[in-house]
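Q: What would this chain look like folded?
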Amino acid sequence: AGYAQHGYGGDALKLYWRMQQENMKPNKATFVSLLKACTCLASLEQGKQIHAHIIKNGFELDVYVGSSLVDMYAKCGSLEQ
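A: My prediction, written as structure tokens:
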């Protein structure tokens, strides 16, 4: 969360992918931070990958994650997702 909040979106995403390699389970706060990182980087493709992980981990109905998804897609110019 700290990386994304302080403008180090690329580092936040790298840490997440490392967490995945270590089989660590993300929580909703992880996904909210990652979506913020994607938004700051204007990285729609990374955002779509994170969205797939959100679904896989069962957080797609969480209100905070959902709001972050809408924000990310809107700011990356792809609100129809």
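The chain has a mean pLDDT of 90.
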